[in-house]
Every structure is written in C-alpha cells, then in structure tokens.
Design a protein that fits this description.
heterodimer, A: 263 residues, alpha/beta, six-stranded mixed beta sheet, 7 helices, 10 strands, globular, B: 285 residues, mainly alpha
Chain lengths: 263, 285
C-alpha cells in the first residue's frame, strides 16, 4: 500500500525510572494518545498544536528516531522501526555539520547510503542548484545566513530522494521574509518533484499555506481535535491566498481551538 | 543578510547574497594586510624590553647580567664552538619519540573514555593521580628503570605530555551535541560513520588544543629530564654552562628554547587552520 499510515500511535515518557506515576494512569507522562492519520503520496500534511502537544515526538517516531509505545507508523507497507533510506528530515535549527562544507553536508545522506562518490557529487550539486546555492559549495555553514543554512538542510534531505520528507518547524528560526521566501520555494519544489511530506509547525498561516491537509493537536496528551483541507487557489504562491475567505475562515477556526486549548 | 532579496534562480542568489566578508562565491578567505596597529605594540614592547635590559646591564658585571649584545654573541659561540645544533638534534629526537608515543595513545584513550562511561570511571583515578603528582618525582624511578639514557628521557616526556591529550580528546567527544548524532542517525550513519564522520571531525579542535598543550609540557619535560639525567642535549648544556658561570650562554640557551617553543606553537596553530577550517570565524582572526 502506498503512502504513510499512522495507526493509533501512543507514547508516554517515564518521569523518572522507578519513580511514581505522573500524568496518566499507567505510570508516565502521556505525550501522544492514539494518533491516527494517513498521508497519500505527493501530499503535504501539517500538524499544528500548542507546544508540548507531542508534535516533535511524533515526527521523531515517523523518522524512526524514537519508537511508539503502542501503534505504528507504516510507510509503503512496512512499519518504521528505525531510520530508513526513504525518509528525509529537515530540522528547525538546521543541524548542519559545522565541519562539513555545503557540498559535503548535502552529500552526507548519500555517503551514509554508500552511493559512489561521482554520483553523489552530481546529485548534491543538482540539489544545491535547485535550492539556489550554486557557487556556495565550498562554504562552511557558519559563513552562511540562517536562510541559506536551511536551504542546505532542505537540499541534504532531498538529496537522498526520500519517499517521505519530514519537516520539524523548518522555518521557525528564520525571519519573516526569509521564511516566506523559503515556503514559496518549497511549494515550487513540490510542484516540480512532488513528495509526501509531514510538516510540524506552530504557525497557523504556514500550515494553511503549505499543506493539503492540516491536523490540529490538543495539548498533552496530543490528540487530533480538528482536521481541515484548505481549498485554496493553485498554485498558491501565485495568489494572495492569505486574503481568501477560505483562509481567514480556517485560520479563525484553528486559532479559536489552539488558543482556547492553551488557556 | 537578507534572504528576501533572493530569487530562486541560482545566479542571482549567488550574486545578491554573498557572506559579509566574501570577495566572491567559492573563494573562502581573503587575506588582509597586517596593519601597524597590530604589530606596533608587540614590536614596541620588545624594543623597550631590550633597551631596559641594555641599560641595566651597564650597572652589573657581565657575570650577573650580560647585555643583549653579549647574549647575541654567545648565541654564535654556541653554534660555532659548542655544537648547539648537535645538542638540539639529540633533544628533539627524544621529544619527537616521546610525543610520537603520547599523541596517538592519548587520543585513543581519550576517545574510549569519551564514548564509554565504564572506561571513564576506570581510568579516572589514574588520570587524577597523574595530574596532581609532580612528575619530576618520577625521575629517580625512571633512572632506576631505564638508566640515564634516551629511554628515561622519552619516558619522562611521554608522562608529562599524556594528560592534556587524554583530557582534551575526552572533552571533545563529550561536547558532541546530540543534535549532530541524532541527525547522523536519521541519515543512516552506522557506528563506523558515527566515529569517522561525526565524533572525529567534531573533536579535532579539542585534539589540536590538547596537542598544543602537550607540546608545551613536552618541551619543558625535555629540558628538565636532560638537566637531571643526561650528559647530552640542551638541558645538559644549560647545567654545564651554569656550573661554569657562563651567564650569557645560559641566557642564550633559554632564549633559544623559548623561540623554539613559540615556533612550534605557531606551527600547531597554523595546522589547526588547515585541519579545522570551520573554526575560523572571519579574516580578522
């Protein structure tokens, strides 16, 4: 079966080993409670919710970096139990390796997958050009602006040609204009080479602008409390989608839910 | 710097958003000529030092305080008559062998302690003991074990330079941030890649700092060992000229060793720029 299926995923953290139960009946801090949703190929699904709702934990489970206590994430028919070559990830704080040049950072995933050097060089250079950084291959991350660093992070994740791309608040650490520019480019890239994506964010506008479907999480333990599919003019970057009545209606709806839950 | 000025096209991106200091895309560094403001204070303080020394030397007999010119002359004597080059070569030989043994083994042990808590706990007391024990107390022991030859000097240089290597490498491994190991794991790094592509490059700045410290200790150790137990090398020359009250030659030797130490330290700093170019913040440093 193609696509990502998240089936009744639950996760609790133990407060302290052998310590007393806290927060839930079964001895831990419940972060995620029976999360279920599907992502079809070439679709972008957004997860939005207050901080502490387990968004990042869910993303780590989807990446195979963490395991659920119950339930499973199943990608193209096989459960995700460890990091996989068909899953790419983009981090909020970029997580570029400071000792590697732009080129070597983008090549990292391919190198780990033992792709031969000439091929991995060629693929990395193509991706660097695609994110607009041609000419910066030999620079180190500290020589680049935040926006440029996240372009490298995006290129590194796309270089392994993943089936599923995970984005953990990818534009949260950038200034407004830079983030807006990168969002537009993400949609352009998606139009050229569509991928299945899961985007975690706390930014309602970002979720509505980028995603085909948005899941709103409740505070801890995270549960899906609302699911919307923004119907916005396409391509979204070519229209002022923020001004459409659909957008303002959905934003108000999600905001009421998120803000109401937070108080 | 502002991403908003960029367009998706590569050419304009490169043109519109160069890093602050860059002369052009793909050219990592630009050398700035060193201005007088940089070298003048250093040169000035050296000139004042020499002048004060020259003046003071007029009030004392050369036996107590020879002037700069006399010490400079003693330098030539050391080379021409006392075979300084030979003694230096002998000293350097034990220095290189001692460091050659201490550097790889110290780095390996520091790495093992960094990745393994049991190893850390096992070697902890020995490292602490090595740190607080005046190493000079071990010299009689080395004489008993190795005699007064090269082996004892090598052993002493090894012991004095070992600690900073282990501790710095250990700190380098332990300072590795989780975000890098997690990222590497997400992109399928195995144990070998985690070592080769994450921990090792991430620790290089620490390891080089350890080597720099170890070199300083080793040079001190080299002279100390020679003064105590050798009839060769620079340390022996110092003792010998000291006994003969050849003050100018003792001073010349001290200056020679300190110049050597400065040169070696500068070389290590330079190699850090080569081996870990990502630690270079900008051209002014």
């Amino acid at each position: 079966m193609d696509g990502l299926r998240v089936e009744r995923v639950s996760k609790a953290f133990r407060r302290s080993p052998g310590g007393r139960a806290n927060g839930g009946g079964s001895g831990g801090l419940h972060v995620l409670q029976e999360i279920s949703f599907d992502v079809a190929p070439e679709r972008i699904v957004g997860i939005i919710g207050p901080s502490g709702c387990g968004k990042t934990t869910l993303l780590k489970i989807l990446a195979g970096l963490d395991s659920p206590d119950d339930g499973a994430a199943v990608l193209n028919g096989s459960p995700v139990t460890r990091p996989r070559p068909d899953i790419g990830i983009v981090f909020q704080l970029f997580n570029l390796f400071p000792w590697r040049t732009v080129l070597a950072n983008v090549e990292f995933g391919l190198q780990m997958q033992r792709v031969p050097a000439p091929e991995r060089r060629a693929r990395a250079e193509r991706l660097i050009t695609m994110v607009g950084l041609a000419g910066f291959e030999r620079y180190f991350p500290h020589q680049l602006s935040g926006g440029m660093q996240q372009r490298v992070g995006l290129a590194r994740a796309l270089a392994i040609n993943p089936t599923l791309l995970l984005l953990d608040e990818p534009f949260g650490a950038l200034d407004y204009q830079t983030a807006e520019r990168l969002r537009e480019e993400l949609l352009r890239i998606q139009a050229q080479t569509p991928k299945m994506m899961v985007l975690v964010t706390h930014n309602i506008d970002e979720a509505l602008y980028l995603c085909d479907r948005v899941l709103v999480f409740s505070p801890r333990p995270g549960r899906v409390t609302l699911e919307v599919e923004p119907r916005l003019p396409s391509p979204r970057w070519a229209h002022d989608v923020y001004a459409t009545s659909e957008f303002t209606r959905l934003r108000a709806e999600i905001k009421a839910l998120v803000m109401g839950a937070a108080t | 710097m502002n991403d908003a000025t960029q367009t998706p096209s590569a050419a304009t991106a490169a043109a519109s958003e160069p890093p602050r200091w860059a002369a052009g895309a793909g050219r990592p560094a630009v050398r700035v000529p060193i201005s007088a403001a940089v070298w003048l204070p250093t040169a000035g303080s050296i000139a004042v030092f020499l002048a004060v020394w020259q003046v003071l030397s007029r009030f004392y007999p050369p036996l107590l305080l020879p002037g700069p010119a006399a010490v400079f002359g003693a330098f030539w004597d050391l080379f021409a008559r006392d075979n300084l080059a030979n003694a230096f070569a002998t000293s350097i030989q034990s220095l290189l062998i001692g460091l050659g043994l201490a550097i790889p083994t110290g780095i390996v042990l520091g790495f093992l302690a960094g990745v393994s808590r049991p190893v850390e706990r096992a070697i902890g007391p020995f490292l602490d003991a090595l740190y607080v024990t005046p190493k000079i107390m071990l010299i009689p022991l080395f004489i008993i074990w190795f005699g007064v030859g090269t082996e004892a000097r090598i052993a002493y240089i090894f012991v004095v330079s070992y600690f900073p290597l282990v501790v710095n490498t250990f700190a380098g491994v332990r300072s590795m941030r989780d975000e890098y190991t997690e990222t590497a794991r997400a992109f399928l790094a195995g144990p070998l890649e985690m070592f080769r592509d994450v921990y090792l490059p991430g620790s290089i700045p620490f390891i080089i700092a350890g080597i720099r410290l170890a070199l300083g200790h080793a040079i001190v150790g080299m002279i100390t060992a020679e003064m105590f137990l050798a009839i060769v090398g620079l340390g022996y020359m110092v003792v010998n000229f000291g006994n003969r009250l050849a003050t100018a030659k003792v001073l010349a030797l001290a200056i020679f060793v300190s110049l050597f130490g400065v040169a070696v330290t500068e070389f290590v700093k330079w190699s850090e720029h080569r081996l870990a170019p990502w630690t270079r913040r900008d051209t002014s440093s």
